[in-house]
Specification:
97 residues, mainly alpha, two-stranded antiparallel sheet, 77% helix
Length: 97
């Protein structure tokens, strides 16, 4: 059995960057899925292939950029709230070996 340590403070910028990177990857995945949906929709209902291609690229790029920016902001807010609450109600306890 290892030693139990309590996380009392987390580095906001480092955690926010990691959260942003994770959200950017998820945004890429969802952007690709959305792009496929746009491609299917455009091929079914319209003859404008160029509009569908632009929409697909916007979905992918928007998913990545939006995921990164949104992930950074949300994770930074969560880290700040954690740093504010941890001294008051106790931090997360981890068992380390």
């Amino acid at each position: 059995m290892g030693e139990i340590k309590t996380i009392t403070k987390i580095p906001v910028r480092a955690v926010a960057l990691m959260g942003a990177a994770i959200e950017a990857v998820l945004g890429l995945i969802f952007g690709i899925i959305t792009a496929i949906g746009i491609g299917v929709g455009v091929s079914t209902f319209s003859s404008s292939v160029a509009g569908g291609a632009v929409g697909a690229v916007v979905a992918i790029v928007g998913g990545v950029v939006g995921g990164f920016i949104g992930g950074f902001i949300i994770t930074a807010i969560i880290a700040l709230i954690y740093n504010w609450l941890a001294p008051r109600i106790g931090g997360i306890k981890l068992e380390l070996e």
